[in-house]
From TrEMBL:
Gene Ontology molecular function: endonuclease activity; hydrolase activity; nucleic acid binding; RNA nuclease activity
Keyword set includes Translocase: no
Membrane-spanning segments: none
Gene3D superfamilies, alphabetized: Ribonuclease A-like domain (3.10.130.10)
Pfam families: RnaseA
Localization annotation: Secreted
Keywords: Disulfide bond, Endonuclease, Hydrolase, Nuclease, Secreted, Signal
Record's GO cellular component terms: extracellular region
Protein's recorded name: Ribonuclease A-domain domain-containing protein
Native source organism of the sequence: Alosa alosa
InterPro entries according to UniProt: RNaseA, RNaseA-like_dom_sf, RNaseA_AS, RNaseA_domain
GO terms of biological process kind: angiogenesis; defense response to Gram-negative bacterium; defense response to Gram-positive bacterium
Length: 164
């Protein structure tokens, strides 16, 4: 085998180099987008996910989820009066901050489609971990606060369909 047989022709080498540059550019842009989230927004988003996202949630496990996720009133160990879990992925809920939501007011966006939710309501105990909750399932449009395209606060919901 001659040396020439192993080498790429100039047009093929140029196309391979262009593909490599394109792939590197794409990787860099995705990396920059992922890292453009500030530390404060990242922290608020993580708290939002912990408190409000659970695709496998049901109305019978409110006590367990509230306890395992250590959800209490902000800045205390008092039992939170009500907490809402959205039965969806974080990525699906994040889309409300963009094309799947409509600007409502300030930094609030309302979902264009209803979501199944579980509302956990305090029914006993005063301080974590002795809080007791009762769950209620329904389907609602939801309103969330967004910062830099990331959900950071569950604001409200409007009843659409109650599922018993």
């Amino acid at each position: 085998m001659e040396k020439e047989d192993c080498m790429l022709s100039p047009p093929a080498a140029t196309m391979t180099f262009q593909r490599l540059l394109f792939a590197l550019g794409l990787l860099l842009s995705v990396s920059l987008c992922a890292h453009s989230q500030s530390a404060a927004v990242k922290q608020r988003y993580q708290k939002f996910v912990t408190q409000h996202i659970n695709g496998n949630m049901n109305e019978y496990i409110c006590d367990k989820e509230m306890r395992s996720r250590k959800i209490t009133q902000t800045d205390s160990n008092d039992c939170k009066v009500t907490n809402t879990f959205i039965q969806a992925s974080g990525q699906l809920v994040k889309r409300i901050c963009g094309e799947a939501g409509t600007h409502y007011r300030g930094n609030l966006f309302k979902s264009n489609q209803p979501f199944p939710i579980i509302s956990c309501t305090h029914r006993g105990g005063a301080r974590y971990p002795k809080c007791e909750y009762r769950g209620h399932k329904s389907t609602r449009y939801i309103a969330i606060a967004c910062e830099d395209g990331w959900p950071v606060h569950y604001e409200d919901d409007d009843l659409v369909i109650v599922q018993q």
